[in-house]
């Protein structure tokens, strides 16, 4: 046992001797290199600081390696620093009070939405902000960015000057006598043209502002301002409007219900809190309750519209065709860019001509296309409810209503209904006959030359 200990001691002393020899050789090499540099530069004063820095760096590296070796053999937990403690505390508080501008976990996003708040911006942006210094957007420390903002600010100042000039010209034109301009019609035409140009200048003044685009992408845009209406209109036309037109034409709503429509307002359909995409099948139990609409207008000012809900697929067994049925009709409904929500159930009696009736479909019949149209009233004048109610009934066509009152279609959407598990009970509750019937297609007899003749078979 004594011999083993002595051999172990000798091995340790040999290792220490080897380390000392390596350190001595390294110091000698560093000294020679520095002296060579000093000799080449003929500057002894410059070599001493370099030598000191190299030696300090080597000693620091050696101490750090020894510290890592010591920690690797330790079985106790490391002592948490104050920075780690603060980070853990901030992380815990973040999970308790979720920040809508920083949340990036889908689970936390769902928890935030259930609490009535919505995340701000995209998930990628929120994840990037978690590790950023959180500089204000207009004070980002990038020289190129700040110089570009100066150029944009100068351009905005020019546009503001043009806006002031255009406003002065418009005010003078409004005060001018129509006879000196070329008549009342010419006077109004010029006023509308100048107002349109003024709105365009307002958009151009803010279209390149990064703060404006940031607010719009975060869902904080003020729709009373032209720039945010312009950006929202662009976003709607890039995707959702194309989908809407595709569904209306693919399912033949156009021209079965109306001959033509050019949607300029975004109409979104909701049953309860669930948004219904155009053309989606809705359960008959859900469609018993009147839906709500979100009608987003992109033009300035308030408009009076007529809302009509039509089912063009009511089977007519006598004529072997389909009839139209008006499910809902309301007039004099105000909409604006800032007031978009319209609840069909919450409209007053002076507005509702035909109250909501639940759409239904008989067993065996094709699906029904429940079409919703928003139509602008002429010259923004309210319609007389009694006059409209005289000729409006459940069997009237929407084309006749459009022609009679000179309505202009602004937007539309649709959903579909079909025979489902709840349809029979819904029809019984509403007192609609036909829940026990099943429609079947008639067998069409083949033409004589297509009939099978067994006598001619071999």
Automatic annotation (TrEMBL):
Which segments of the protein form a coiled coil according to its record?
149-176
Q: Does the keyword Mitochondrion apply?
A: yes
Matching entries from CDD domains are given as: PEBP_euk
Signal peptide residues on this chain, from the entry's feature table: none
Task: From the UniProt entry, list the residue stretches annotated as the region Disordered.
Answer: 1-27
Q: Could you tell me where the Basic and acidic residues compositional bias lies?
A: 9-24
Say what the protein does: Component of the mitochondrial ribosome (mitoribosome), a dedicated translation machinery responsible for the synthesis of mitochondrial genome-encoded proteins, including at least some of the essential transmembrane subunits of the mitochondrial respiratory chain. The mitoribosomes are attached to the mitochondrial inner membrane and translation products are cotranslationally integrated into the membrane.
Question: In its UniProt entry, what is this protein called?
Answer: Large ribosomal subunit protein mL38
Q: Record the organism.
A: Trichophyton verrucosum (strain HKI 0517)
């Amino acid at each position: 046992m004594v011999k083993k200990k002595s051999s172990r001691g000798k091995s340790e002393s040999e290792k220490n001797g080897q380390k000392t020899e390596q350190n001595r050789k390294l110091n000698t090499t560093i000294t020679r290199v520095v002296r060579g540099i000093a000799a080449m530069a003929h500057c002894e004063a410059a070599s001493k600081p370099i030598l000191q820095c190299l030696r300090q760096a080597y000693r620091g590296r050696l101490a750090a390696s020894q510290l890592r070796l010591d920690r690797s053999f330790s079985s106790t937990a490391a002592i948490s620093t104050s920075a780690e403690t603060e980070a853990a505390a901030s992380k815990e508080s973040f999970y308790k009070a979720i920040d809508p501008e920083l949340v990036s976990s889908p689970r936390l996003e769902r928890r935030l939405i259930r609490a009535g708040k919505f995340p701000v911006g995209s998930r990628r942006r929120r994840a990037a902000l978690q590790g950023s210094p959180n500089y204000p957007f207009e004070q980002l420390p990038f020289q190129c960015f700040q110089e570009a903002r100066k150029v944009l600010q100068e351009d905005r100042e020019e546009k503001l000057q043009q806006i002031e000039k255009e406003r002065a010209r418009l005010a003078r034109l409004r005060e001018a006598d129509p006879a000196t301009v070329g008549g009342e019609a010419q006077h109004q035409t010029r006023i509308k043209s100048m107002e349109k140009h003024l709105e365009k200048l307002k958009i151009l003044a803010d279209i390149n502002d990064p703060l404006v685009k940031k607010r719009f992408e975060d869902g904080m845009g003020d729709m009373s301002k032209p720039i945010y209406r312009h950006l929202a209109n662009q976003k709607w036309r890039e995707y959702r409007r194309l989908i809407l037109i595709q569904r209306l034409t693919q399912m033949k709503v156009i021209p079965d219900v109306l001959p033509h429509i050019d949607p300029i307002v975004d109409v979104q359909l909701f049953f309860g809190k669930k948004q219904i995409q155009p053309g989606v099948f809705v359960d008959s139990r859900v469609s018993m309750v009147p839906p709500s609409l979100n009608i987003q207008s992109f033009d300035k000012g308030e408009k009076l519209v007529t809302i009509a809900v039509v089912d063009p697929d009511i089977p007519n067994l006598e004529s072997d065709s389909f009839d139209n049925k008006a499910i809902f009709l309301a007039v004099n409904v105000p909409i604006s860019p800032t007031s978009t929500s319209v609840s069909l159930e919450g409209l007053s009696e002076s507005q509702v001509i035909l109250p909501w009736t639940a759409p239904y479909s008989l067993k065996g019949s094709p699906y029904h296309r429940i079409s919703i149209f928003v139509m602008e009233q002429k010259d923004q004048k309210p319609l007389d409810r009694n006059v409209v109610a005289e000729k409006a009934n459940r069997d009237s066509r929407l084309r006749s209503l459009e022609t009679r009152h000179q309505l202009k279609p602004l937007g539309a959407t649709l959903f579909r209904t079909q025979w489902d598990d709840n349809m029979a009970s819904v029809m019984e509750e509403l007192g609609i006959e036909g829940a026990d019937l099943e429609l079947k297609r008639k067998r069409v007899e083949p033409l004589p030359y297509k009939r099978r003749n067994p006598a001619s078979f071999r």
